[in-house]
Amino acid sequence: MLEIWSRGFGWGNFKVNFGRKGVAVAIFDSFEADGYKRLREENAESGMCWMLFGYIWGMLEGLLNVKLEGEDKMCASKGDNYCYIEFNFIE
Predict the structure, then answer these.
(1) Residue 11: which pLDDT band, with cuts at 50, 70 and 90?
(2) Each residue's pLDDT tens digit, 13-25
(3) What per-residue string of b and e applies to 59-82 under the rule 16 or more CB within 10 Å gives b?
């Protein structure tokens, strides 16, 4: 699915890492963060990849059949080099 979002829709390039405690997703060239930077001169105070955050969260919960807690750790809209979201398994 992430491949479709990346190549088909141009939403960004995704790197996913699965671990014992959860899943980490790095997003390079996020269309949401890039769009924010085109509209504003200053960096955002919080991450702007809300749609990607939600889509990825729902996709992971559905595919893995688990409950997750997600946190936006980095975002290009805040001046970071890329966007980074961590999802931790809820037991």
Answers:
(1) confident
(2) 999 999 999 999 9
(3) ebeeeeeeebebebebbbbbeeeb
Parallel, antiparallel, or unpaired: how do β-strands 13-18 and 68-74 relate?
Answer: unpaired
Q: What is the pLDDT of residues 31-48, one digit of tens each?
A: 999 999 999 989 999 999
- Residue 49 contacts residue 43 (beta carbons within 8 Å): no
Task: Give the chain's radius of gyration (CA, Å).
Answer: 13
Structure tokens at 80: 């970071």
Residue 23 and residue 60 in contact, taking contact as beta carbons nearer than 8 Å: yes
For the beta carbon of residue 21, count every other beta carbon within 10 angstroms: 9
